[in-house]
């Protein structure tokens, strides 16, 4: 196959995945495994090559999978023990309406994303808030959308992954990138608060806020078995354990999955003593864990086939050829508006940071500094990062809220694109991004 054919195959694979997940006729697991397999057959790859690409992609997901497995067990123990029920009832008295709850969601996400990790944000924010949203008769997709959009904007913090990768690629300071794009960062957060207001109004029109009607709903009614699992006597121990775990994630050098392993062990031993009862609880949590683990592994296979096969280098070479012949003066400004769309078509973030964006800067070096090049990519890209089918952390949020990718994409992508373009426009008006 030629380089152009490999590149075209990569775009078609990404489009096929997006279409299959948007149609929603099967589990996301099916297209994530079927599409790369078909791609491998078209490339005439031998079994050893397919195994190598798939294994490389799955290895990249192992820390995320481990973290999610123990985090979901930990938070389910907290839910069964009744910790979040008590916290939610107290928070409901303070968040007295739909609008305060939406605004509180944005604030909690900003705080939760202080360590720059999307996975941590979803794990910290969603478990207590999903109960609040149900109590307020609000759709989980609104919670997922607000958290994803706000976490996306927050992902541009200098200690986050994207800033670090761009700083490394250009040999500049990540804090310099953040300082330069600060107006766009503030604009993005203002947009998130504005969207909280818009979403609240939309939910109120749908009848949200009528908590009285929901109190008797079967989802909020405790069965005798569920009541037997409540541990009110350990409420303060569990609260301290939750905050200690979050603190350890932020301030210790331990990997996040190790923090959740330790927390899970302590929570299980204190709340549910005895091998039989602990085994029953683990069996109860297994379906949620296994469905998400299998999905993340499938995501790893898809990303592995795209990233470790000749597809990604071919896509980069084709893009190099196209960009190399483009008019350089306005290229960075035009690309700033196009990055979110190119990302949706399968343009790899790592390839952009380490290859495409530096290449654009070299082509436009007369008009574009390395700092401006980094900002012109980071500003439009971040707001949509958690609405992309190959972002593993997003599936943690989807699993915790019970929202499908199709629902999430249809609800949030247009708003993410709006934040992206507004932020880019602000940067152009302030001459942060030249055009």
Please identify the oligomeric state.
single chain
Straight-line N-to-C gap: 38 Å
Structural class by sheet pairing and helices: mainly alpha
Number of strands: 0
Cα-based radius of gyration, to the nearest Å? 23 Å
Q: Calculate the mean pLDDT score and round it.
A: 85
Largest sheet features: none
What is the number of helices?
Answer: 22
**Which strand-content bin applies to the residues?**
under 5%
Order of helices and strands: HHHHHHHHHHHHHHHHHHHHHH
**Helical proportion?**
over 70%
Catalogue the unreliable spans.
Answer: 213-219
What's the quick description here?
The protein has 435 residues and is mostly helical.
């Amino acid at each position: 196959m030629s380089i152009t054919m490999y590149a075209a195959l990569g775009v078609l694979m990404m489009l096929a995945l997006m279409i299959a997940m948007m149609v929603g006729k099967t589990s996301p697991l099916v297209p994530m495994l079927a599409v790369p397999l078909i791609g491998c057959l078209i490339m005439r790859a031998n079994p050893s090559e397919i195994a190598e690409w798939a294994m490389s992609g799955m290895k990249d997901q192992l820390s995320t999978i481990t973290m999610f497995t123990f985090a979901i067990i930990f938070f389910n123990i907290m839910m069964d023990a009744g910790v979040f029920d008590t916290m939610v009832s107290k928070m409901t008295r303070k968040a007295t309406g739909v609008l305060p709850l939406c605004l509180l969601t944005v604030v909690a996400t900003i705080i939760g994303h202080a360590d720059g990790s999307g996975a941590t944000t979803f794990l910290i924010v969603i478990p207590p808030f999903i109960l609040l949203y149900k109590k307020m008769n609000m759709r989980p997709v609104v919670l997922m959308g607000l958290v994803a959009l706000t976490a996306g904007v927050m992902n541009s913090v200098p200690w986050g992954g994207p800033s670090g990768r761009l700083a490394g690629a250009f040999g500049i300071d990540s804090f310099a990138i953040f300082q330069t794009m600060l107006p766009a960062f503030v604009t993005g957060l203002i947009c998130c608060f504005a969207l909280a207001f818009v979403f609240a109004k939309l939910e109120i029109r749908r009848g949200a806020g009528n908590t009285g009607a929901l109190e008797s709903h079967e989802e909020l009614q405790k069965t005798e078995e569920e009541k037997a699992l409540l541990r009110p006597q350990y409420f303060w121990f569990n609260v301290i354990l939750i905050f200690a775990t979050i603190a350890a994630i932020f301030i210790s050098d331990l990997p996040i999955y190790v923090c959740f392993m330790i927390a899970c062990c302590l929570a299980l031993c204190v709340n549910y003593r005895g091998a039989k009862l602990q085994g029953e609880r683990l069996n109860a949590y297994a379906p949620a864990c296994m469905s998400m683990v299998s999905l993340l592994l499938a995501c790893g296979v898809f990303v592995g086939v795209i990233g470790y096969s000749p597809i990604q280098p071919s896509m980069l070479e084709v893009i190099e050829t196209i960009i190399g012949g483009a008019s350089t003066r306005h290229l960075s400004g035009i690309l700033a508006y196009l990055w979110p769309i190119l990302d949706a078509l399968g343009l790899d973030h790592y390839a952009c940071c380490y290859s495409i964006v530096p290449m654009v800067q070299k082509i436009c070096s007369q008009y574009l500094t390395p700092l401006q090049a980094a900002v012109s990519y980071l500003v439009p890209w971040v707001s949509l990062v958690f609405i992309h089918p190959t972002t593993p952390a997003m599936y943690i949020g989807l699993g915790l809220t019970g929202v499908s990718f199709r629902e999430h994409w249809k609800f949030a992508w247009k708003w993410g694109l709006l934040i992206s373009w507004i932020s880019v426009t602000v940067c152009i008006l302030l001459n942060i991004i030249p055009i």
